[in-house]
Design goal:
By secondary structure, the protein is an alpha+beta fold. It has helices spanning about 15-30, 55-65, 100-110, 115-125; strands at about 1-10, 35-40, 45-50, 70-80, 90-95. The chain binds flavin mononucleotide.
């Protein structure tokens, strides 16, 4: 089995009902594939952790990449795993800054193999500026700087 994290850019007009519906349908479908994980939505970006059999993850990623509710799916980390870290999370919605996030950061940090996952979680989405930084005109390096994608 393997574990992975990807980030993606949510469709700009996505609403809370749609996110709830992604979580609910994933929670129904994932047990059929022995997949578990969590989903964070923040600042217009998705951050999803998935763990499960390699072939199931591959098949699920194909579907996820085709999903029009987001774009720019980038797998940030993927590695072999001996056992699931979140065996009871069919698909858990996690909020940044909450107790659950602290708990799972602690879990990722406890194992050498998942340190990279902890690092990615800590950096999401804080490394992404909310607003374009407009430098004063006249600056030769002046170029509008747009928010980085997720
Ligand atoms: C951010 C995001 C996360 C998703 N996570 C899952 C997931 O964990 N499990 C799942 O079955 N579908 C997930 N989906 C939905 C899939 O993209 C797809 O719609 C679903 O697997 C049904 O595909 P099908 O109709 O081709 O069977 C997610 C979609 C998005 C946009």
């Amino acid at each position: 089995m393997e574990r992975l994290i990807y980030t993606s850019v949510a469709r700009p007009d996505i609403g809370p009902e749609e996110i709830d519906s992604i979580v609910q349908s994933s929670a129904l479908a994932n047990p059929l594939r022995s997949v578990t994980g969590f989903l964070i939505f923040d600042h217009g970006c998705f951050f999803q952790y998935l763990e499960g059999p390699t072939n199931e993850l591959d098949a699920l990623l194909v579907k996820i990449k085709r999903d029009r509710r987001h774009s720019g799916v980038k797998v940030r980390a993927r590695s072999a795993a001996r056992s699931p870290l979140f065996a009871r999370w069919r698909m858990q919605r996690v909020r940044i800054g909450g107790e659950v996030e602290k708990d799972l950061l602690a879990r990722f940090t406890a194992e050498h193999e998942t340190l990279e996952f902890a690092r990615l979680l800590r950096r999401f989405p804080k490394e992404k500026p909310d607003l374009a930084i407009i430098r004063p005109s006249g600056d030769p390096a002046a170029r509008p700087s747009f928010p980085r994608p997720c």
